[in-house]
Amino acid sequence: MTLRLAVLASGRGSNLQAILDAIAAGTLDAEVIGVWSDRKDAQALVRARDAGMQAHAIRPRDFVDRAAHDAALFGALDAAGPDLIVCAGYMRLIGADVLAARAGRMINIHPSLLPDFKGLHTHQRALDAGVPEHGASVHYVTAELDGGPVIAQARVPVLPGDDAATLSARVLGREHPLLLETLRWIAAGRVALHEAGIHVDGRASGPLQLAATDRFP
Would you please indicate which residues are annotated as catalytic (active-site) residues? Predict the structure, then answer.
């Protein structure tokens, strides 16, 4: 079954573009049914429109509070009927009630090896901490900021002379394959969220680790 994806993005939309390219190449059995952003000027919306798909800006400033914004945003998402909501650089917090109602149907990609370096400025924080490895994680979204069960990770070395920009670029090169491979496993029904955590192929599992071949074992 083709996986129906709704994408939330606040910025340039590079992960969205990776998804669109994989679908066009026939390497991901999915369909992006729409892209939503909290920013009218998000480049992700331009990418969506260029690809001929629905693109919507639902701005928080147009609502009295976060609950009202969440209601409008997720009302529109629900009307589109996605199987999975993908947060691809979506930079706003979402209310706990909204997330609880969509447990196991919403994922996020975050530029660190969670649970390390939740939140912002992950690359500089990794450098400041002196860690030998950094990377990216895909996780189910819960009310805890970047705290939902981790589905999969990709690792990169932290090299001598790195700054935040060079480390960010190295991580970004692994983010796209990580997200796409995770989506392939979800589309194939191989990954699911259970009360006790992630199950892979029907068994409890720790995070999948993306190999150098850009495939999980």
Answer: 110
